[in-house]
Design goal:
33% helix, eight-stranded mixed sheet, alpha/beta, binds zinc ion, six-stranded parallel sheet, 415 residues, 14 helices, globular
């Protein structure tokens, strides 16, 4: 058991900027000290060892040290969302899959994640009790939706989509009207939700609705936001069409998920409300890739994914240029788990600078989740850290996934 660890010589991205080569001292799971490497004087490692504690020295020369990444949109209890295969799976298999998915997510370099529907309080307890390894998880549990909306899994066939099936720890998320959505929000918070996930437009994976159409009225969303705020939390809204995005923003949603169809008026509203955009560029691409690989997806779902992918990239580029706060989210669960850092590659490909894409996955994400001790490499912050091979400032993010070499969570090496 190592009390103290010094990571030496890595190029540091501290959550805001590249800072050049630094040595970082980790003690009791927390970042205790940082110092520029090779500036003369006593090395941090030698100094730390004099207090008699065991020091593990990690020579990270030639690597880049960043905060552990934060994925603001995952579904750890889901695999291949929307696939018709899920209809024949045993109910409880999702929880065993969640354990594996959490492990893969952590191995990918994600030390904190926000679940956007599926994982329940039991999944969180399994993590905090140490039964399974994974990122620190904040969970929406259920997905709130109007009748016939993106989160209403009832099909015209009479079947109910397995991912959204209610159970004792995960209330069914469908409600209509101000009073009913108010009660539903309280019910989901009672089940242990850390935040509330709603759908204010249609989506790609719901076979019968249109991503451009809005869902829930502003009055309904306002009631949900008010109930969440009364319990000290906030609303994240799945929103793809411009009008449904604006409805959610006007009503006070803290983050817009996907944000596929943006226009100037909508981007202005993001800035005015100081809201966050979580692009999930991976999601439509994952649906297309799954379909191309022969997955059993409804044809309407695949057609919608193809329709939105290019528009999505253009919208995110436009929002970035306008200065909208962008936080990293992947929608993992639609695509495979453990490929989360592809989102960094995709954000870089639509024009985010290396610095801003990394900020999206660290400081900006921590600010969205309102977490004061993660997302930075700074004294007093949790020692959640990733080491990448090479100098990311020079190399960029096009191979971010392949470069992940070591992952630390609370000072413990996980990869
Ligand atoms: Zn999602």
């Amino acid at each position: 058991m190592t009390d103290t660890r010094v990571i030496t010589g890595a190029q540091l991205f501290d959550g805001e900027e590249f800072r050049g080569r630094h040595d970082v001292l980790v003690r009791d799971g927390v970042i205790a000290e940082l110092r520029a490497s090779g500036t003369g004087g006593t090395p941090l490692a030698a100094e730390a060892s004099t207090d008699g504690r065991i020091v593990d020295v990690v020579d990270a020369t030639g690597k880049t040290l960043t905060p552990g990444l934060i994925d603001c949109h995952v579904h750890v209890a889901t695999d291949g969302a929307g696939s018709l295969d899920a209809f024949v799976e045993p109910f409880s298999l999702q929880f065993f899959r969640a354990a594996r998915n959490l492990e893969r997510t952590l191995q990918a370099g994600v030390t904190t994640a926000r679940d956007a529907g599926g994982a329940d309080a039991g999944v969180k307890a399994a993590l905090s009790d140490g039964f399974v390894d994974g990122p620190t998880l904040y969970a929406a549990i259920s997905i709130m939706s109007q009748t016939g909306g993106h989160g209403d899994g009832r099909m015209a066939s009479g079947a109910h989509m397995p991912m959204l099936t209610g159970h004792p720890g995960r209330p069914d998320g469908v409600a209509d009207g101000v009073d009913a959505v108010r009660a539903k929000t309280r019910e989901i918070l009672r089940a242990g939700a850390d935040h509330i996930k709603i759908c204010s437009t249609g989506g790609v994976l719901s076979p019968t609705d249109d991503p451009r159409h809005s869902q829930f009225t502003v009055a309904e969303i306002e009631a949900i936001v008010e109930e969440a705020a009364a319990q000290g939390t906030y609303v994240m809204s799945h929103a793809q069409g411009a009008e449904g995005i604006r409805n959610a923003l006007r009503a006070g949603a803290r983050s817009i998920e996907h944000g596929i169809f943006l226009d100037e008026e909508t981007i202005e509203l993001f800035l005015e409300k100081d809201a966050f955009l979580v692009p999930t560029l991976q999601a439509p691409l994952a649906v297309i890739a799954a379909a191309d690989a022969g997955a059993a997806l409804p044809t309407s779902v695949v057609a919608k994914a193809r329709m939105v992918a290019e528009t999505h990239r253009e919208s995110i580029a436009q929002a970035y240029d306008a200065g909208v706060k962008i936080a990293m989210g992947t929608d993992a669960g639609v695509g495979p788990h453990g490929e989360n850092l592809e989102e960094l590659e995709l954000m870089a490909a639509v024009g985010l600078s290396t610095r801003d894409a990394l900020r999206a996955g660290t400081t900006v994400a921590a600010s969205l989740l309102d977490l004061p001790t993660v997302g930075r490499v700074a004294t007093g912050y949790a020692a959640d850290l990733v080491l990448f091979d090479g100098d990311l400032e020079q190399a960029g993010l096009s191979e971010a996934r392949r470069r992940v070499s070591q992952v630390y969570q609370g000072g413990m090496r996980k990869r």
